[in-house]
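Troubleshooting log. The previous structure file for this entry was overwritten by mistake, so regenerating from the original sequence record. Sequence copied from the archived sheet and checked twice against the printout by T.R.
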Amino acid sequence: MSAAAQSVDAKPADTQQELTDGFHLVIDALKLNGLTTIYGVPGIPITDFARMAQASGIRVLSFRHEQNAGYAASIAGFLTRKPGICLTVSALGFLNGLTALAHATANCFPMILISGSSERELVDLQQGDYEEMDQLAIAKPLCKAAFRVLHAADIGIGLARAIRAAVSGRPGGVYLDLPAKLFGQVIDADAGRRSLVKVIDAAPAQIPAPDAVKRALDVLRSAKKPLIILGKGAAYAQADDEIRAFVEKSGAPFLPMSMAKGLLPDTHPQCAAAARSTALKDSDVVMLIGARLNWLLSHGKGKTWGDEPKKLIQIDIEPKEIDSNVEIMAPMVGDIGSCVSAMLGAMGHGWQAAPVDWMSAIAKKREENIGKMAPRLMNNNSPMDYHGALGVLRTIVKERPDVMLVNEGANTLDLARGIIDIYQPRKRIDVGTWGIMGIGMGYAIAAAIETGSPVLCVEGDSAFGFSGMEIETICRYRLPVCIVVFNNDGIYRGTDVNSAGSDPAPTVFVKGARYDKMIEAFGGVGINATSPDELKRAVNAAMDSGKPTLINAVLDPAVGSESGRIGKFNPQSVLGKKK
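Regenerated output below.
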């Protein structure tokens, strides 16, 4: 019997009719498809739905802001390969969630944003309904697909379409519009059950063409200086064993993008992360596996890629991604697991590994760079600099390789990406394709919920400000999250001066702020750390306790550089340039 079953008492017992409604059909449709966690913010018109979902056994995580709930749902999709569900109210709640939906689409994370909305007849005539907004029209340009359900009997098919759209082909964000009146619609329970759809093979394998496999291997075989670049698409594929076997059999150096770190350990002898510039500039054949030639790879052009033309091999599930910036000599379209498995099968025995002199050159540069960096990571300065603080966290992650690392900021992100080694797949999650701020707390919450692992969230003080109120959410659900805020009193640094007046400079925050005091207000543990030694003790204590903890890591306000490593994207006018 449906959880929503109702009896019509006015009829004789033998003619009683079992009924259900839109609330319970949405709940039953979600559970039928194994979607048992919702991230969201309750309010009109979805408050009762959230209560009913929780009562039915679905885990409902209630946030303080829809954007953070959306980021949580998006990274849940990345970690589980099932669409993360974000639930919002109409109008402004929907718009808050829309930022995260667009982020999920840009990053190829499967996510469904479910929002209540005003009634269509009032919206279309613009009659001024409560939070009136044509949400479907607004969402369409910013996501992979958008659907609206008007009748309870269509809830099952509507959710099924949303699921399939989110995870099939290149994953992405999907919007599902549920007008308020839909939830209260009542239909026959048996008809309601029959209307539900269990999605079968939502993301079917896409097998690469044999000719494409042969072409790719022929180009790779011809290389004198091959390089494999692993993107977050490779991490999402969860074809970890196949990818590792292929990389090791190829003998080529590999360069992991930030969220692909750990597919093979960063300490693997073929890892070229510490020799990134040399690997990109001097290679002659580059194979992209789940990586896009976007701004993070200088679009495959320019000085970063050296003076000599390269032959490129690209594996991607989206045909339109091929040749997006430069010519791809050997495209292979298909899902990454199938493509890598096909190449492994076709390599056979006796594959010639990468030339020894090339591997030696990469290894020499890697060791040289690691050697230069080592003393900077071992300092015990007080107040701290980035390298001393990150050196501590690097050691902690090495000792606790199962920890989930969440990372965002400017300098905090850029430096941590290169300093903190990762040892297991999908253990590092960060801002991704758009390079945005604000993902931290949402990601940390979802990482704890979806993996059950302890979470270390390393934040710049600016980045933390975008989602910091969610520390109350972390405390409310007693999640094992340790947040480290790198506090240098400002954006990039806290030493800028306003030469034209008494207001602080635009990039300067309150001096000596104590972010650790914030979490204490919600029952968490707050610690102020002023040296690497203090930071090490504080993080280890937090990891051991599993209690929600925020560590205010005091950095020298003068450390940090403009825009981290992407200052070129912050152009100055001719008059504004420093002489």
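Residues 1-10, 573-579 have pLDDT under 50 and may be disordered. Archived copy saved in two places this time.
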